[in-house]
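Task 17 of the worksheet. Students: predict the tertiary structure of the chain below and write it out as C-alpha cells. Keep your answer in the requested format; marks are given for formatting as well as content.
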Amino acid sequence: MENLIRFFTKNSPWFTWLFLAILSIVLLCQTNPYHRSIWFSSANFITANVYDIQANVTGYFGLRQTNDEMLERTGQLEAENQALRQLLQQYQDLGSHSNDSVHHQYRYLIAHVVGNSINQAENYITLDKGSADGVHQDLGVADQNGVVGIVANVSEHYSLVLSVLNPKLRLSVMLKDTESFGSLVWDGKDSRYAHFEDLPRNVDYENGDTIVTTGYTSSFPKNIPVGRIVDTFDGGGSFLTLQIELFPNFNRLNAVHVIFNDEQEERDRLQESIGTSDK
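Model answer:
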C-alpha cells in the first residue's frame, strides 16, 4: 500500500496532466460542434475496425463448422443422387419400378485429415475416424472434388488411407462420356497428375474430358469424379496411356467423405469365391 501511495505521489504531475488533458478534450468536444463531429467520426472508425477484426476472427474459427456442414450436405446429396440413379436404371431395365425396391446403398461419413504425405514413393493419409465409427478396410474416400483413396487399415479412432498418390492403388476408372474404362495409377512424380492406362486406341476422346469411377469396385459408386485428360502418351501398342490432372488438391486436404457401401460385404464375398477382386 505504501508503495502504491509513493507511486502516485511521485508521478502526481503526470496524472494531473492526464486528467486535465482528458477534461479539456471532453469540454472541447461538448462546446465545439466541429471537434465533436471529429471525435465521433474517429470513435466510429475505431469501433468499426474492432468489430471488423472480431467478425474476421469469429468467421475464421467458424469455417471448419461451416465446411463440415457443407460436406455433410454434399454427402446427403450424393447418396440421394446414387439412389436416383438406381431408380432410373431399374425403370429403364424393367419399364416399371417400385419405391420399396430402392434403398440408399451408399452412406457418407465426414472425417478430417490428421496426417498426409504427397512426396513419398508411397503416400498415405490418416483420418480421425476408426473402427469405433464403423470404418473398416476397403472403404472409398473422397473429398468435395473427387476420389482421394481407399482405407487400408484402421485402429479404434483412426484410419490409414491408401492415397491415389500411391502406386499400390490401381483404381478402375472410365471416360465419363463413352464409359470406356481402364486403370488409374500414380507414376510417383507430380501430386497433381496420375495416369489412365489401358485405354483402347480406337476410343474417341479429347483433352479436357472428365474421368470418373466405373462402379466396378465396391469401394466407390459409379461416376465419382477423378480428374480430366491433359495429355496422351502413345507407346505404339493397342492401348494408350493418358495423363490425368486430378481434381482433389492433395496438398490441401482437410475434410473428406468416407463412403459406406451397404452391399460391399456381399459383393466382395461373391467375387472372392471365384478369385476376383477389383479396386
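Marker's comment: Helices lie at 2-10, 12-31, 33-94, 264-273. Residues 33-94 form the longest helix (62 residues).
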